[in-house]
Amino acid sequence: MRSEIVSLYMSGRNYVGSVPMLREIQFENWKSYKKASMLFDQLTFLIGTNASGKSNALDALEFLSRISSASDITSAIVGDSNTVNLRGGLEWITYEGAKNFTITASVSGEDEKTDYEYSITVSIDGNTAELENEELVRVRYQGNAQRRLRLFWTDAPDGGAPGITARLYNTKSGTKQPMRRNLSVLSQLEIYEMREEIKVAVDHVLQTMRSIFILDPNPSSMRAYSRPSEHLNRDGSNVAGVLAALPDKRKKIVEDLISRYAAKIPEKDITRVWAETVDRHGVDAMLYCTERWNAKRTLEMDARGLSDGTLRFISVMVALLTQPERSMIVVEEIDNGLHPSRAMDLLSAIQDLGSKRKIDLLVTTHNVALLDALPPKMIKSVAVATRNSSSGASEITILEDLPHLSRLIAEGSLGQLAARGKIEESIKAQVRNA
């Protein structure tokens, strides 16, 4: 399987230097977060009770992805003909009615000694969201020291003005460049002639933000026919179309891999998963699978006969096998619809494919069995969303940062601790004692 993935995806690609990845995101006055940050690993789990702020954290990533592609800032929040609104829209986009919010992202640079910090502040005025401040900083590491260089930043905008002035690094006070306030400066700079260090940084950060893919599979929509397509829809509705559109050689390898990973998911073993067009014009595709019911009997069915859990699993596999390498895939409630006994199979599949294809995953889960399946070394990849007892604000805690983690783990498995609310209790006790 390893050789198949390598031959399929690495041939013909040349990666020069370090390919950018998202390291950390910080929120200030963002939805239920007053001030918080979250670190990312190759596989990061975000857990927490209902209404703890998990979905709000994912929405921040969606917002960054949208504004990186020159989406109007207001539309990035309220949606348009091509995108749905972020939950709550403009009315609930800021913490307790604050006038603005700030999101800061840390991105790995072109080598191990370089990072980039990108920050955007957006003000809310009635039915409009506008740029208030934006900057990009290069961070160079020399031992324990840092050298910070502001590559671009903005002046404070005039009240009500449609434009904002960006300053591009020029070794002095910055070259002034008029920009629009309804778009991110980062996306506008893509077409400008700039100093090389600014261009490299802008390209790195844009590539990272555009590689964020939010997957929220909707099994009902996956049971319908879909048009062949190069890009997977957010709801997974065109899984069949994405598979059917692949070149023949690549299609066979991808479908074989999905079939192997999916074999243990349903009660009856899946022996094959594939998609094909069903009309002479090749405009409608359907997803199919073959199940082995016993030694002598197999059953072929289309997506209409597959369970919700199986369809969600297939959509995750398709995303992992067709999204560009170095992407970040975000899946909310990744194990929804899967039986707890299949948790280990799911974990093994996403770990294996994510590692081999160099794709970061951020997933939320409530599944006790999935958390119990995590090996001890992965505890550092678990983040917990909670609500502060005093302020009600959402907070994110990295599990390994808890001072009494070993004592906590001694009380039971990670899944059982989460189910009994012990993790949240420990975090709140730490806050009270701080």
Task: List strands and helices in order, with pairings.
Blueprint: H1 2-9, E1 22-30, E2 33-39, E3 43-47, H2 54-68, H3 73-78, E4 100-108, E5 114-125, E6 128-142, E7 145-154, E8 163-168, E9 175-180, H4 185-189, H5 196-210, E10 212-215, H6 219-222, H7 239-245, H8 248-262, E11 269-277, E12 285-292, E13 298-302, H9 308-322, E14 328-331, H10 343-356, E15 360-364, H11 368-372, E16 382-387, E17 394-398, H12 405-409, H13 414-419, H14 422-433
Parallel strand pairs: 3-15, 3-16, 10-14, 14-15
Antiparallel strand pairs: 1-2, 1-4, 4-5, 5-6, 6-7, 7-8, 8-9, 11-12, 12-13, 16-17
How does this model look, in words?
It is a single chain. The chain is α+β, with helices and mostly antiparallel strands and 434 residues long. It has two domains: 18-211, no CATH class; 214-364, 3-Layer(aba) Sandwich (Rossmann fold), CATH 3.40.50. Helices cover 30% and strands 29% of the residues. It has helices at residues 2-9, 54-68, 73-78, 185-189, 196-210, 219-222, 239-245, 248-262, 308-322, 343-356, 368-372, 405-409, 414-419, 422-433, and strands at residues 22-30, 33-39, 43-47, 100-108, 114-125, 128-142, 145-154, 163-168, 175-180, 212-215, 269-277, 285-292, 298-302, 328-331, 360-364, 382-387, 394-398. It has an eight-stranded antiparallel sheet with strand order 2-1-4-5-6-7-8-9. Strands 10-14-15-3-16-17 form a six-stranded mixed sheet, with helices on both faces. A three-stranded antiparallel sheet has the order 11-12-13. A hairpin with an 8-residue loop joins strand 7 (145-154) and strand 8. Helix 2 packs across helix 5 and helix 9 (308-322) packs parallel to helix 10 (343-356). The longest helix is centred in the first third of the chain and has 15 residues, at 54-68. The radius of gyration is 23 Å and the shape is globular. The model is unreliable at 9-18 (pLDDT under 50). Residues 43-372 form the ATPase AAA-type core domain. GO terms for molecular function: ATP binding; ATP hydrolysis activity.
